[in-house]
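sanity check this:
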Amino acid sequence: MAGSDPKASDAKVLSTEPLNPKEARWTKLIKTTYKDPLGKNRTWEHAERCTRPKNSLIDGVGIVAILEKPSGPELLLQKQFRPPINKVVIEVPAGLVDEGETAEESAVRELREETGYVGTAEEISPIMFNDPGFCNTNLNMVHVKVDMSLPANQNLKPELEENEFIEVFSVPLKSLYAECKKLEGEGYAIDARVGTLAEGIEVARRWKL
């Protein structure tokens, strides 16, 4: 809308149609033949990314960035429109790794580009597969420390690409589970990485782990 900042909620799907494989830049469909435990040959349809760097074990990274505030720790989140589900999704900062880049380097770069925050990678998860029954997409979750006292983290300057429209916000960790339910009720979709983290906190709370 003229005269106002574009919001993720301003986007919408206009049409859908089958994709010619020759036009696919980011993904491809695969038919795999395999042998099951009984020795029977079977086939499986699935998708693969076309963007994983040659020497990389992962496609991308998800970023767990905790902001230490006087009121308590808050998880950095963002709102981004995702055309495959025609909804604005609540996500952690994330992105694809570049050629020759480590997961830690990718996480620090993506955090700065998408949110403006400058951080230091402290912990990396095992490789996680997003939906292994459907595709081979995988990632590392990287825990990034954000020093809120740094001048760069007081005056945020995201470096978004021209096709990225990301709204950044944070939620208290202690209320993440309830906030996910609230946001879903408002019409947002919850990314599995955010939902799983919220579930983990809730399980730990209920079982006093």
Q: What stands out?
A: The mean pLDDT is 96.
